[in-house]
Please model this.
Amino acid sequence: MGLEQKLGDMGIVTTSLEKAVGWARTRSMWPLLFGLACCAIEMMSTQASRYDLSRFGMELMRASPRQSDLMIVAGRVSRKMAPVLRNLYDQMPDPKWVIAMGDCASCGGVFNNYAIVQGVDEIVPVDVYVAGCPPRPETLIDGIIKLHEKVRAEPLKKWA
Amino acid sequence: MKQDELAQSLKAALGGLVEDVVFFRDEVTLVVPREHIIEVLTYLRDAQGFDMLTDETCVDYYPREPRFGILYQLNSLSRLIRLRVKVMLSEHDPTIRSAVSVYRNANWLEREIYDLFGIHFEGHPNLRRILLPADYQGHPLRKEVPVTVEENAFSFNRARIDAQKPYATE
Amino acid sequence: MLTQTEAPTLGENTVRVEDVQLDITLDQLKKLVSPRALTGETMLMNMGPQHPSTHGVLRLLLELDGETIVNCIPDIGYLHTGIEKTAEGKTYLKAIPLTDRTDYLAPMSNNLAFCGTVEKLVGIEVPLRAQYLRVILMELTRMNSHLVWLGTHALDIGAMSVFLYCMREREMILDIYEAVSGARMMSSYIRPGGLWRDVPNVFFDLVQRVLDVFPRRLLEYEKLLTHNPMWKERTVGIGKISAQDAIAWGMTGPCLRGSGVNYDVRKAYPYSSYDHFEFSVPVGSNGDVYDRYLCRMEEFNQSLKIIRQALKNLPAGPVMTDDRKVAPPPKHEIAYSMESLIHHFKLWTEGFKAPEGEVYFAVESGKGEYGVLLSGDGTSKPRRVHFRAPSFHNLQPLNELARGHMLADIVAIIGSIDIVLGDVDR
Model:
């Protein structure tokens, strides 16, 4: 009903396996429920009423790293937190991606001092850096869409 | 003036226990030798009604000697007056008696000072690092520790940045 | 030579309590937990730092006798940012953005606390219009802070829709921040001597919208929670603390007032002409989670009342002091006056000098007494900045609050003391 009448008989759609898998991965991405600092509040705003991240199929935040495939490092990472963060990343099953949200997670931001890791890419490999202090929810959504594009283009071999 | 009277009355009451009374920007600071700090704090709490320790922290007056100043910011909820007590500590013997027996919330505050400045608090029930990891070396808020750790890179010379930066792998 | 005091060395008897690091010697552990934990009678359990209900990266070491909490030892520092050290390397003006990032749910309160301290140290008078605008922004900030508290607290206890409602209302306040400062969260709008600039016209419409809409929304929350038997079941009688204990632990804000102590910095040590406004300070009696909740809910109403008065009596005039020692020259003057240009340049590069001495200044932020202890050394950079963080002091008695309650109550207690880890760890 509906769609088929409009488009005619859809029959068989052919595509490459890589494209199908990449598409499927972007449609069921479960982020880790993991907030650190100020950016976590903006991450909450992104999921909440006005910005509504569920439009992109991303609203299901999992508190367990075993069930998630995207880590959004939202905020500054202190030297004390760094081993914990790596521990969480190691627990996530493949395929997994990391977004460094905000300046502090990307490069240390204004906190060029003894306590803060100068960029979370020293601890975990980062796929997308989102700039801003803190990034607006739109910026984070843009970062997520950028990540989706990247995931769709990834060859299957990478995670095999 | 409320604060003026306070300074005078405390000077009279404490007598020899107080080295100096500083009056700056409407705030009274009692400078107390470190031997008498617990006596003074107990007196202020019990007889003068300073029932809340608002804050306790340390200031590094490097290169001056005595180098460290421990500041106790007191507040009286009944009289609505603030008062500050200051103890100067030498660089060579940064030790002071713990105020936990007088004010309970000094516990974490003194742990923080120990963590960041390396001041020893005698009689503290649980003196260990609170903010920094347990294996951290040194006390970072001392003046000899530089403020920044990384050189500011004003160029986008990726090769140079990459050479210095330890990137993580899978 | 500089001496370095040695950290306690970790010897052979170092026990690793869980796989996440809390390197602590056995002797130190014995002081924290009951002897029953070492015989295996009670259970030691880790909670956090990555846990949905710890409001950030708080870590707790719980000692449990079945479901009952015997001891609850907070382990903080996972968000230690070194803000105090970084502020030592910046001029007074450039240190303001750092204060935004301590208690990031109430950035304007932190701005005011820091700027108020600098004003006290340098000796600057703030124009009345700026003071009134500061009051309006302060109260909006309090509502902002309380909205996030209410949303997350309710979410922890299991009321999901309240979270979505609160975040919806919070966007209205963030719109105001954006209109005045250009940033949604980290405003840095308050400067020593006044405000960055006068508020745009749209500011008044936006504030009016909050005043119109918010009382209705507040009734919705009250309908959902205040008399809800499930809510009361989980909050009444939980996490009690007496007035004497709360004072002795240095608790401030709604946590102290929930125990029946009428202490509010706005009334006790009025700043920014808070004594011009008529408002009451809600005080609880039992000191439990429910009373702290009621205090904060009533503070919404009082904030709205203050904003209405401030809008009505808002005086005209400048929003920045005319003391050119700290205030930058107006932009149009820079275009034709060489002196102004040099002055502007000097002010933004070197900054203004503050005298030597220590001052303390506190404001009543959403969480309690947010104070700044500033030590100036005669130059344009502070010798030492210490933030008296309300969350730090409110978190410290957590063990006393939680002892004897059930494991599931710990999230209600943490929610009710309204901690922000950025504030605790700084």
About this structure: The longest helix of chain A spans residues 137-153. The interface with chain B takes residues 79-80, 86, 108, 112-115, 118-119, 121-125 of chain A (CB under 8 Å). Chain A is about 35% helix and 10% strand.
